[in-house]
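Before the break, one more example. Copy the sequence into your notebook; we will annotate it together after we see the structure.
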Amino acid sequence: MTDVTTLLNADPLILQALREDISSEDVTTNAVMPEAKLGTCDLICKEDGVIAGLPIFKRTFELLDPQTKVDLKVKDGDTVKKGELLAVVTGDIRVLLSGERTALNYLQRMSGIATYTSKVAALLEGSKTKLLDTRKTTPNNRLFEKYAVKVGGGYNHRYNLSDGVLIKDNHIGAAGSVTEAVRRAKDYAPFVRKIEVEVENLDMVKEAVEAGADIIMLDNMSHDEMKEAISIIDGRAETECSGNITKENVKAISDLGVDYVSSGALTHSAPILDVSLKNLHTV
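Here is what the structure looks like once it is written out:
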């Protein structure tokens, strides 16, 4: 998350978030702290979880003032405990106060996703199935949320619509059939791209196999239906199951032997991990 390319992509998004919170000035901070004064505060974890987003937390303060120092005590991917000191932030007190909420919003959201993802991934341990995210992300926060999934032990599905061919129900409706949609995709897409098809019943499974799909996504099927679908596919395509997959039901899928399971819940339903900046004082 700290490489130059990632920061170039992240910086405009962080600045946009800061502008959202400080449209003209931080009137409260300017009232109580009219002049620059060096201060420090502690980043404290308030519940157990997996931390993610520390580079973004740090960068938020640096974009307000490059002189701000963030002494990290842990790294992304670490399991953290309630009450643990995660970092010490030192700089202009006005910067610490003005950047606090935006920096914490990123860290709490990303850590919540990493924590939830790690719990779901643990339920698939011992199987060959890889846990994937989806495009069900918060607008303008996909970069951060998909990174958090990886920190939590998951894998990224396609990043955006330019990243791969995924023929869903409405694409099939537009083309007229699974067969025609796959044919058109093969004609249009570069040969290096795999073609994935979302199917909802066994007839569609058979059609997708015959059409030559590379990956077949079994969407909102029952356990028995998925088992039969995998038998029909018989290794002729990679398999993925999807549709309302959560921590509560993913374990029931682990015995099927699918290659992938994708879950929008990783990004759209993960609760935040509670962290806080405390003990602000002058140096």
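Residues 135 and 173 are 21 Å apart (CA to CA). The first helix runs from residue 4 to 21. Try to locate both features in your own notes.
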